[in-house]
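debug: dumping io for the single-chain case to check the tokenizer round-trip. Nothing else runs in this session.
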Amino acid sequence: MGRDARKKIHIFFSGLVQGVGFRFTSKAIANRLGINGWVRNTQDGRVEMFLQGEAEDIDKFLDSLKDEFRHNITGIDIKKETGPCDCKNFSIRF
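debug: decoded output
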């Protein structure tokens, strides 16, 4: 795929997404698909995430995560990003 197929997105997941392995599962899926970015818990009970990678891989990532946590996720807020990310891999932020 060409560089124009790359995308960056900023996501907030709502629901029962903390304390259930959401961040660690996200990291495992991202590493498998070669997606860079980060994930962290927020003070308000959501999970925040930044993803950078091939559009097709990000779509696969989201499908896998939504399938794995289909009973936990009650809302997803996705925004496209244009700014830089210094991400060389996918990390869990604390």
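debug: round-trip ok. The domain at 3-83 is CATH 3.30.70.100 (Alpha-Beta Plaits).
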